[in-house]
Automatic annotation (TrEMBL):
It comes from freshwater metagenome. The lineage of its organism: unclassified sequences, metagenomes, ecological metagenomes. Residues 595-660 form the HTH luxR-type domain. InterPro entries: Sig_transdc_resp-reg_C-effctor (IPR016032), TPR-like_helical_dom_sf (IPR011990), Tscrpt_reg_LuxR_C (IPR000792), WH-like_DNA-bd_sf (IPR036388). SUPFAM superfamilies: C-terminal effector domain of the bipartite response regulators, TPR-like. This is Unannotated protein.
Length: 665
């Protein structure tokens, strides 16, 4: 206790003595309460180091004499006057005591603690304050109190140079976590770049790699980022251990996977895939990620999943996404959890597994609610909008889209403009109102149209309002952008819708486009067309194929596809697909029977193996194509023979074609 504190306590213990002394003592005690920020008897007793009864008596006298108001408040002018009577050092001592107390009092008092800490000046050694602020900051992160965590880590970072603090890079990383949760993503990215620079300058490759993981997840932060790529190059030249190299290669694959095609400010609208460049990198990283830390394995899984979006990898993607979500939940980091949950949901939906999709979205929504992060809330609302479209609940879809848009607009989140545009397009197209489409003007040079889905939305609008020539032009431009890694099946199925409408009109000859779409879609007729981010579902691929075959006059194949699509649409509870199937069935007449499961009970992986058998491929070639072990393909081949009731590859191929399970090239 300081000299002035001892003197104040001694005076306070003699309140019944000299009136002048009593008055000075009372004012000193009230002044201490004002400095501490709480003019109550317990707080005065705490910071003046006097007995509670003494503080209570002083407060009663202060109220009676008009120094303190009856409700316990004190006028601001009088408060300044009373505090001004205290020695400067005593004021600083109270601030220091209050800072130490409040830094350990819980997240709710952080703003006060930081204020006191800054006012205490040199009375709290910087080393002590940095340590206390960092500990309290970690606690606030655990409690998802992002605003308090931001204050505390900013304080620790500001004082680190005075404390000769070597852990500043870590503090920058955690400040970025708090900032991104608060929606301040641009500042968070700048902080992470600063943290990476510091780590690299100290030759701390472990910390630098941790920073780069934060820059890469969520992936929307870093598509085509030259800054992230430059940092990766600098870290890769360091002397890294094997596990860090795995993480670094996975991050590189995610950063280099996509090049933005259309950018306005911080908003990206379309991308070019560089799958051939990054897939070998992510595959090697995942193969090496055995007997490693959980976070290393999870980053490798997410890197592989991000770089293998083609439908040919669906079976493996589901396995990878499932494991990634399990690890993300163990690690309990919100960004990992929601990215992994949405990825698994997309993979489940593409497989026609609606319960799996709903389960994954439930996890994503729960994570967003628990974390309280603005970015996670935005991400959850976007996929919930997509789920509402799937159910045919356009009112709920619009509500979720608007909620997502408001969060995105308020915090200028990366991708919010593009996502809102595509959800709005889906909303309008789903209502299928030509008048509304005509009013919804999207210029051909707007950023959204640079994405094939945006261009096809424009083509759909054009054909519905009678501008067939314009529609055909946009359709053909979109077909040039077909890419297996970029919402491949969704783009192809949307193109099929436009092409069929143009063919129905009789004004334009798009037979070549329809033939191309048959080639593109037939290998994947068991899949569901969904975009890579879980925002837009076009229903079973077989349903789009049924419509294309009908237009081309392939009625028998169209019936087979419809037979397959109808039960899938019902199992998915896809209201729009069910309606489209019913309309197509009405045109075919009553002779279309719903397909039974006989002959079609193969797993997704077995179907992929069977496709290879039909094409005459050997097991080693199939294993290499599908990135499975040879033993797995052999086991699947045996199971295929059993299910089809055949004894060899040639008979299995013939039976598969006869049943319509696989269409030969």
């Amino acid at each position: 206790m300081g000299h002035y504190a001892r003197k104040a306590m001694g005076q306070a213990l003699e309140l019944s003595g000299d009136d002048a002394q009593d008055a000075a003592t009372i004012r000193a005690l009230i002044g201490i309460g004002v400095v501490a920020g709480d003019v109550t008897a317990p707080e005065i007793a705490r910071y003046a180091r006097v007995h509670l009864s003494t503080a209570e008596r002083a407060l009663e006298v202060a109220v009676a004499s008009g120094i303190v108001n009856p409700d316990g408040t004190i006028d601001e002018e009088r408060a300044r006057e009373i505090v001004g009577e205290l020695p400067a050092r005593r004021v600083a001592e109270v601030h220091a005591d209050a800072a130490r107390t409040l830094l350990t009092a819980g997240a709710g008092r952080v703003a006060e603690a930081v204020r006191h800490a800054r006012a205490a000046g040199p009375l709290i050694p910087p080393e002590e304050l940095v340590t206390q602020a960092r500990k309290a900051g970690f606690l606030c992160l655990t409690l998802n109190d992002w605003a308090s965590a931001e204050l505390l880590f900013r304080l620790a970072i500001d004082l680190s140079p005075l404390a000769d603090e070597e852990r500043n890079t870590m503090q920058l990383r955690f400040l970025a976590v708090a900032l991104s949760a608060l929606g301040k993503l641009t500042e968070a990215r700048d902080i992470l770049v600063r943290a990476a620079d510091e780590a690299i300058s100290k030759d701390d490759w472990r910390e630098a790699t941790s920073v780069l993981v934060q820059l890469a997840i969520p992936v929307e932060w870093s598509y085509g980022s030259k800054v992230a790529a430059g940092l990766l190059d600098r870290v890769s030249r360091m002397d890294l251990d094997d596990e860090t190299r795995i993480v670094l290669n996975s991050v590189r694959a995610m950063v280099d996977a996509w090049v933005p095609l259309e950018v306005v400010g911080d908003q990206q609208f379309a991308w070019i895939s560089r799958a051939s460049l990054v897939q070998p990198i992510s595959e090697r990283a995942l193969d090496a990620a055995v007997n490693v830390e959980n976070e290393t394995r999870m980053v490798a899984l997410m890197g592989w999943r991000e770089t293998h979006r083609s439908p040919r990898y669906l079976a493996r993607r589901r396995e990878v996404s499932t494991e990634a979500l399990d690890l993300a939940q163990l690690l309990r980091f919100g960004y990992y959890q929601i990215e992994a949950a949405i990825a698994l949901g997309v993979d489940a939906l593409e497989s026609g597994d609606r319960p799996g999709y709903d389960s994954a979205l439930t996890i994503a929504r729960w994570v967003a609610e628990q974390e309280g992060s603005q970015w996670l809330r935005w991400r959850a609302f976007t996929v919930l909008a997509g789920a509402s479209f799937l159910d045919g609940d356009f009112v709920e879809a619009a509500r979720n889209r608007e909620l997502a848009y408001e969060i995105g607009r308020q915090f200028d989140l990366p991708g919010y403009v593009a996502v809102n545009t595509y959800l709005l397009i889906e909303e309008i197209l789903s209502r299928n109102d030509p008048a509304e489409m005509a009013a919804f003007v999207v210029a051909s040079d707007e950023p959204a149209v640079s994405h094939p889905l945006g261009r096809l939305a424009l083509a759909f609008r054009e054909v519905r309002v009678g501008r067939d020539q314009s529609a055909e032009r946009h359709l053909r431009l979109a077909m040039r952008q077909l890419d297996e890694e970029t919402s491949y099946l969704l783009v192809a199925c949307r193109a099929a819708t436009v092409a069929c409408l143009l063919a129905d009109s009789g004004e334009m000859n798009v037979t070549d486009v329809l033939d191309q779409l048959v080639t593109v879609l037939e290998p994947w007729f068991r899949h569901v067309a969904v975009d890579s981010f879980g925002l837009w579902c076009e229903g079973p691929v077989a349903l789009s194929l049924a419509r294309v075959h009908e237009v081309l006059g392939n009625h028998e194949r169209a019936r087979v596809m419809l037979q397959f699509a109808e039960p899938m649409a019902r199992e998915m509870h896809d209201a729009r697909a069910i309606a489209r199937a019913a309309e197509l069935r009405d045109r075919f007449g009553p002779d279309v029977d719903v397909l039974t499961s006989e002959g079609f009970d193969l797993t997704e992986r077995e179907l992929l193996v069977l496709q290879g058998i039909v094409k005459g491929k050997t097991n080693p070639i199939i294993a290499a194509d599908l990135v499975y072990s040879l033993s797995t393909v052999r086991a699947d081949t045996s199971e295929i023979f059993r299910k089809l009731g055949v004894s060899g590859r040639r008979e299995a191929a013939r039976r598969a074609v006869e049943l319509g399970i696989v269409t030969p090239d």
